Amino acid sequence: MLHYDEYTMSADEIIMKILSSRKDLTRDEIRELINRKIRESRGFLTVESAARAVAAELGLEISGFSLAKGTAIRNIISGLNDVTTAGRVLHVNPIRIFMKSSGESGKMRSLYIADETGILRVVVWGEKADMLEPSEILGKIIKISHGYAREGYDGNVELNVGLRGEIEVSPPDISEDDFPSLHKFLRRINQIGDSEVRVNILGVVTEIFPINTFTREDNTSGKVRRIRVDDGTGKIIVVLWNNKVDELSDLKVGDHIEVFRAKVRRDLNGNLEIHIDGSVEATILSNLPSRLGGSEAAGNTTFRKR
Residue 155's domain spans which residues? Predict the structure, then answer.
């Protein structure tokens, strides 16, 4: 438990701002809310960060980040509960069906959002996953309430949306101008080079090649398929490996595809390719949202893993 004299001047200033706007709260009550937030984070939040989180939950704007947005992505750490945050949707994965320990089937969907402070993977469980069709929400702002943060399979923090969680698409109290645009996270095909390890692209499938099978050294079989994608600035071969061949089996010429964190390689002839394996996300878009047309279709910023 923190003592009052451990509060920094900036934290006290935040408390004063809360007191001036929330006459129904006392200083001690606000300090207890801050302490509770620190306990929930298992000590990983500083007093100031916890004070900012409490202020955000109470609807106050601190240093430009308002309650409407909630907690900035960079301040979300594993162990936090009842998290509110907002971001622009960068990528949405297909729904996955799994078996629970009870023998019943469950469903989940993951997506990535970004604000001006970072990128966050969001995992949505249960029926709420049906709300998030990729073609409907890609590029839009969503607000997540009552989420809980945990460490993901890759060691990065991710936000989970369960039974208590809520998701609002294009909330009216949040300005789109407060978030980076989607095209800033996409790479134009004609700008992809050897210096890049991972890139995000969005384009149209113009050609699909037959599936090839092969035998690995351990005598297990594998499969590979190549497709050609055009984003208006250039064309590139995208190579699908193993499970990704099955996951994208419904892909047709003319479909839009978004590839997230793809690996850049050169083929035997020295031509650049993009490879999609189990570590890469890819989604077929039945329709391209109008907000992605024209100059919004691609940018010049590659994905950087947090």
Answer: 68-180
